[in-house]
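Working notes for the structural subgroup meeting. M.R. asked for a predicted model of this chain before we commit to crystallization trials. I am recording the input and output together here so anyone reviewing the notebook later can reproduce the run.

Input as submitted:
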Amino acid sequence: MGTITKDGYVVVVKNPKEPLYDKPVLSLQQDYSIGGAQARGEYALSLPTSIAVDEKGYLYILDFKENRVKVFDEAGSFVRAIGRPVGRRRKRGRQALFRDQDDQMTGTSRSGKEGI
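Returned structure, recorded in token form:
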């Protein structure tokens, strides 16, 4: 049988040698597909670190390496990019992406909160 223990702030999960269930208890269904392995241009993602979806179904993907938020519609088509790519004098800014209490898309950066 498997065990779950806590060691300080770390939760240690040890799975049993044999599965508990004969049939899968969880199935995954694809909702979005962006680019794929052969993605080029705006569909290519360098280092996606945060994802958010708005009320219209638009997908916002924070690409940390490019320092931009890429926006895709519910069909997976590129809509626009927000921000400028990192250059020689530009540092990476946004670290995470979320919807704030005013229902606005917001990103966090090293210097604090900034709007998208």
